Amino acid sequence: MSEPNASHLNKVQIVYFRNLDILRFLAAFMIVIAHTYEGWKGWFGFPSFMCSNNSNAPSLLGKLLEQFIMNLGVGVDVFFLISGFLITYLLIKEKEETGTIHLINFYIRRTLRIWPIYFLIIAITPFLIKITQSPEPDYLSNILFIGNFSMIKSGVWSFPFAHFWSICIEEHFYLIWPFIVLYFPTKRLPVIFFFVIFLSVIYRGYISSIPSENQWMQLYLNSLCRFDVLAIGAFFGYVHYFKPIKFNPEPAIRFMLYVLFILIMCLDPIVLYDNLFLATFKKYFYSIFFVFSMGNYLFNPNALLNFKKKNFIHYLGKVSYGIYMFHNIIIPLVIQFIILRYHLSNFYLYTLITYAISIVIPIIIFELFEKQILKLKVRFEVIRTQR
């Protein structure tokens, strides 16, 4: 395939979705909140403020709050929606404007974005295992980006790779998606997107109908089981490319939907696969809300927190990948080397320390390491993007 034309790169309009970085940060921090809480509960039980009458059992309010916090792990689906949307939008734009997709450039860009931090963590894992006295993880499967399938087989969330499963799924998506966009007629792409969703539904139904020891992990971690959300984001990107989305629902409607969603988050465990419906279709009720929220925040000029200028939250969106990748390592380190060592049995202090370090460390890594590598991405851009 021919290389991108330099004059084309100078003429095309820069692609920039102003609030996308804020969405990235919000998605990452949702997961940080959920895992931070899980870390405390795993070591010390329920925080005292959730319990009633100085007991170890949560009150009704505590149960509602815990359910809400545990459901914040769905931030991973928000990441998948964003990835499907942005990658598909850029691929279609490249194909429509240049007549092709420069696959090598695409994979170099994705490698520069994902691999440095990913393999940095793998490189320091022997040190982390030694100081935390954790079991040896499966290095090879994560080096090969099949760690999600390794965890399905073992049924174990292994430190420090427990959250690498989502990166593996995104890598599997990147492996096939450019070929789909390139070689299928553009006007037929929505059929492909819905076919992927259909396959995901059928496969989850198949898995849920066969009792197995690690059935839950199969439904949660298998790439095909999760590709549907990426495909929904892809359809969103397709629609926006050919007919730019205009979004301005009435404030009262938005308010009611968000209140309803918060209530549901307090009452309903999102990741529950106890029957065929829960394993196959339930997730789409939440996906519809996330698509609505994403559309509202990206394309509604009157959306809440729609900042007119870039600020620190936009910057945190730039380091959100690092926040996601490092937070699950920081949590046990904070517990073992700060909370336990100095007898600081205080949930609020633990939370504050964990949140602060989960932001500061990724910022340092971004400025000293990641940022320098990301500068190389510009050389391989076909469609100019701004962050």
Describe this structure in words.
The chain is mainly α and 387 residues long. The chain has one domain (6-380). The protein has 17 helices and no strands. The chain has helices at 6-11, 20-44, 60-71, 75-98, 103-132, 139-143, 147-154, 165-183, 189-208, 215-221, 223-242, 251-267, 276-280, 283-299, 312-318, 320-339, 347-374. Helix 2 (20-44) crosses helix 15 (312-318), helix 3 packs across helix 12 (251-267) and helix 4 (75-98) packs parallel to helix 8 (165-183). The two termini are 28 Å apart.
What's the topology here?
Elements: H1 6-11, H2 20-44, H3 60-71, H4 75-98, H5 103-132, H6 139-143, H7 147-154, H8 165-183, H9 189-208, H10 215-221, H11 223-242, H12 251-267, H13 276-280, H14 283-299, H15 312-318, H16 320-339, H17 347-374
Helix pairs in contact: 2-4, 2-15, 2-16, 2-17, 3-12, 4-8, 4-11, 4-14, 5-8, 5-16, 5-17, 7-8, 7-10, 8-11, 9-11, 16-17
Number of structurally distinct domains: 1
Distance between the termini: 28 Å
Q: Spans of 5+ residues with little confidence (pLDDT < 50)?
A: 5-10
Rg: 21 Å
Question: Order of helices and strands, N to C?
Answer: HHHHHHHHHHHHHHHHH
Averaged pLDDT: 93
Shape: globular
Total beta strands: 0
What is the structural class? mainly alpha
Share of β-strand residues: under 5%
The tally of helices reads 17
Instruction: Describe the sheet with the most strands.
Output: none
Oligomer: single chain
What share of residues is helical? 55-70%
